[in-house]
Amino acid sequence: MKHYRVGIAGFGAIGQAVARALDAGIPGLTLAALGVRDPQRRPDAAWRGPEPARAVLADLAPLCDVVVECAPAAVFRELAQPVLEAGKTLMVLSAGALLRNDDLIETARRHGGQIIVPSGAILGLDALTAAAEGTIHSVTMITRKPPRGLLGAPYLETHGIDVAGISEPTLIFRGTPRDAALGFPANLNVAVSVSLAGIGPDRTTLEIWADPGVQRNIHRVEVDSDAAKFSMEIQNIPSENPKTGRITALSVVAALRKLTGALRVGT
Question: Is residue 241 part of a domain?
């Protein structure tokens, strides 16, 4: 079995959950390093296995074979470029940041690296990538979130939208994932993932609803293609961070297992 040294960039709710899973033991994988702002500060964690090294984001690449990106979108390039130039694998959760730095895809190709976008908090990417081998006519994604899960989004501030005062389901955005990646950088990475799997960030249609009647982040995707017509919906239980579902970290762990697993299910 091939063995991979895994680094985690960012140690928030998702990074901690992935670190715990790796520390508990996944065959063929070792938690090698954490990418943090201050390497001198020890994280508040009790390790069952060897304590991982700590390094600033730009210095993770030499310590790892695979780096899981769980950091703020603002530092995406600082982290991603050295990893890909070193020919390593980068697992990306900030798909919106990847969209704004899409030249890094060519960097990965040129240096023999790889970018993996796990499913995160969305479903059906297998079906979308399969349909994209044929012709997809349309993809529409409808997202409903509790208003608190949208707080702080630049789009709301630019347009003077106070979601805290919303008392009924309200459509606050309709457009493309490319536009949403700028206006909602911490909220709609799933929309970018859907677009990358299907017909791209400029042809996919996205609606964002602030809905005080829901307690979970709900994403519905409707696809019409020459191979199949299908719709999918997922209702995610929020993590400690209301902007992120619990399933996101589990998706990363599942994607890491596929790197070394004897059985791999799904496209």
Answer: no
